[in-house]
Amino acid sequence: MKRITFILFLSLCSIWAFSQTKTVELEDFTVKGTFRPKSITGLRSMNDGNYYTTLEDGGTKIVKYSYKTGKQVEVIFDIEKVKKNPDSVKHVVGYTFSPDESKILVYNDVERIYRRSFLARYYVYDLKYKELLPLADEGKQQVPLFSPNSQMVAYVKDNNIYLKKLRFGTTSAVTEDGEKNRIINGIPDWVYEEEFGYNCAMEWSPTSENLAFVRFDESEVKQYSFPLYKGMYPEREEYALYPGRYEYKYPKAGEKNSKISVHVFNVKNRTIKTMDAGDLSDAYIPRLRWSYDPNKLGIIKLNRLQNELELMVANPNSGVCNTLLTIREPQYIPENVLDNIRFLPDGKHFVYVGQEDGYNHIHLYTMAGIKVRQVTSGQWEITDFYGFDAGKKMFYFQAGKESPLKREIYAVDMEGKEITRLSPEGGYSEAEFSSNFRYFVNTWSTAREVPQIAVYDNKGKLIRVLEDNSDLKEKLEQYSVPQKEFFTFTTSEGVELNGYMIKPLGFDESRQYPVLMSQYSGPGSQEVFDQWGMNWEYYLATKGYLIVTVDGRGTGARGEEFLKSTYLQLGRFESDDQIETARYLAQLPYVDASRIGIWGWSFGGYMTSLCLSKSDLFKIGIAVAPVTNWRYYDTVYTERFLRTPQMNPRGYDDNSPINLADKLSGKLFLIHGTADDNVHFQNTMEYAERLIQAGKQFDMFVYPNRNHSIYGGNTRHHLFTMMSQYIFENL
Question: Which residues form the Dipeptidylpeptidase IV N-terminal domain (predicted)?
Fold first, then answer.
């Protein structure tokens, strides 16, 4: 009798415990942000490196903290205590200190343009007088830059550069020839912004005497346009009856790029000097970077095929340029090299992080262009370069030294003799260093441990935890959440690939489950990390689906040979590896081989479409905003990996889904936004026509006025609800 009572008690406890466990719902990811970890907004190191600031209370305060103690020191900016606020600004969304920290440039009322560019209303806040004054008399501006002496701000408006002298409150035009879809000064054109990853093309000299900038003449670049409807979020009333049209310059592969030139504006003389950077008729200038010498302007120049890079130094007075470094590669130079060429404060050296020995490492050169040494080495990759501490003569960087799936923070001396790990063991770390490299704020997590944000010193000693996300951890204990499991397998070609699985709740190896493969697969990308993150796919796992992601050839952190194996035949090996993944999964006893699906966005959408034409292993595929023909995509990205269509026509055509429409198998669902400025809606429309003429049935959905990210109002929730239902009904 007692035994029966005890068993009954245990059973009731189990039922009670189960009833207390919540189920993950789609709205947790698309609407509520239930599992979104806390972060620190607007963190900026102050000049002395002992303090940092953050943006708080809904953008109404900028608060100063001590790195050493983590305690609040003072409120530097409080919108409620501004003495002069002519526009009655209620909050700001971003800020930048002047170099002497006497003023703060703040902004709000942001209007997005493309991925990185935006217009905003900017204000200058004077810390001494507590006055907030508009940067310009009317309208919005772009990319304002304080001069190093803190007395001026250069900014762009309507494709022209303006200079405001803060002491006198006067503004003057630096350029006057700016014109939409023709001439751009100081900001990049569309393709530079998207593919070289920046939104400002001007730089102050260290003495504030000169302002260098790139001028883009896109007159001969062909124009692309797409319709705009009234829509909602935002609503465009002017298009209520007759649609409008957005027009901009977009150079497709093999077509003309902008003509570029480098100029230096002298503030005192108000003269503009053109730098003689050689033949720029078919070249790129993706970065300008002043050295610590005001008479040496660094210019990074790439040839059109992006397999030759020159680091040039220009004299701003004469315009004469000398080449310090030339890098030549048989395939291509990865885009991340551009931000990892740095001049050192001693004025005698510069470094660049590149794959000279097949892996991404630090290389030290003199200012005469003579190589001193390779500072780091080994069969592992530096994945982010943080900078150089001139006092300690130490370099700081992030690397996947322990495994391509992990990231650690390291310090190495200038001689390269000793590398010290500064971050916690395992998982994924990313750092923000103080200005003097005495401290760094590290964000660490693993696939199963929520992010922890903490301050460390430059010896790796933990100083203080700023955010442990304990609230999220407690919340997760209330839910039944599936977990990531990492695995590797070897393809029939002998290539070892890394992947992860998210198994369904209550996983039973004796059962067979449907599989959804999720991937991006683009060059240099990486999806398989030992890092915290929960998304829509976790919801699918709770519904009985096995989620699998595998990084195929061409992805990052595994060395040059693995990365560049896809050169000149983009898509071939990447799709082969996803098909090999499906074949491997089909052999597992707990996988239903008749129910394997694949999905992806952008390059991942391209990969989905391609896989369904190369293999009958996939029951369904969902392709969001896919490239379907590489001839439709832009010059910089496409030619980096394929050269031009004129030079490599088969590389473009053999692995473009549009040319394989007649071979499509399985059910394909195409999704695209009509206002996608990146992967044009043209890709889906032309592909759809090929499928129709080939007699292939498919599904398709179009989002009006949505760009490549497909968001706004209820859009994201609608998108993932629709994709979920498609999977439930067809997989």
Answer: 98-447
In a shared domain, residues 425 and 499:
no
Q: Which of 113, 140, 167 is the last residue of a domain?
A: 140
Q: Are residues 513 and 458 in the same domain?
A: no
Q: How many domains does the chain have?
A: 3
pLDDT tens digit string along 696-722? 999 999 999 999 999 999 999 999 999
Of 640, 118, 46, the closest CA to residue 338 belongs to 640
Nearest-Å Rg of the Cα atoms of the chain is: 27
Please check whether residue 341 is in contact with residue 350, taking contact to mean a CB–CB distance below 8 angstroms.
Answer: yes
Residue pLDDT, tens place only, 589-605:
999 999 999 999 999 99
Catalytic residues: 602, 676, 708
**CB count in 10 Å sphere of residue 170:** 9
Range of the domain at 109: 39-140
Own/partner contacts of 93-96, CB < 8 Å, gap of 24 or more, are 93/59, 93/120, 94/42, 94/55, 94/120, 95/42, 95/44, 95/55, 95/62, 96/44, 96/144, 96/146
Does the structure show a pLDDT above 50 at 130? yes
User: How confident is the model at residue 202, as a pLDDT?
Assistant: 98
Q: Label residue 21 by pLDDT band (50, 70, 90).
A: confident
Examine the domain organization and report whether 564 and 680 are in the same domain: yes
Whether residue 428 is found in the same domain as residue 537: no
State pLDDT tens for residues 498-517: 999 999 999 999 999 999 99
Q: Are residues 599 and 725 in the same domain?
A: yes
- Using the 8-state DSSP alphabet, how is residue 339 labeled? G
Q: Residue 380 maps to which CATH number?
A: 2.120.10.30
pLDDT digits (tens, 9 = 90+) for 604-648: 999 999 999 999 999 999 999 999 999 999 999 999 999 999 999
Please check whether residue 605 is in contact with residue 581, taking contact to mean a CB–CB distance below 8 angstroms. Answer: no
Specify the pLDDT at position 708.
98
In DSSP notation, 179-200 reads BTTTEEESS--HHHHHHH--S-
Residue 571 counted as domain residue: yes
What are the two backbone dihedrals, phi and then psi, of residue 340, each rounded to the nearest 5 degrees? -115, 30
Q: Residue 658 belongs to a domain with what CATH number?
A: 3.40.50.1820
Q: Report the alpha-carbon distance of residue 280 to residue 383 in Å, rounded.
A: 30
Q: How far is CA 271 from the centre of its chain?
A: 37
**pTM value?**
0.95
| Mean pLDDT over each residue of the chain, to the nearest integer | 96
At residue 418, the pLDDT reads: 94
Same domain, 690 and 569: yes
Any domain includes 501: yes
Same domain for 588 and 618? yes
Q: What is the CATH number of the domain that holds 96?
A: 2.120.10.60
The arithmetic mean of pLDDT across residues 108-125, rounded, is 97
Among 140, 165, 187, the domain-final residue is 140
Residue 260 confidence (pLDDT) above 70: yes
Same domain, yes or no, for 515 and 457? no
Give the pLDDT of residue 20: 53
According to DSSP, residue 514 is labeled E
Report yes or no on 265 lying in a domain: no
Query: Closest Cα partner for 678 from 163, 164, 248?
Result: 248
CA 190, CA 184: separation in Å to the nearest integer? 11
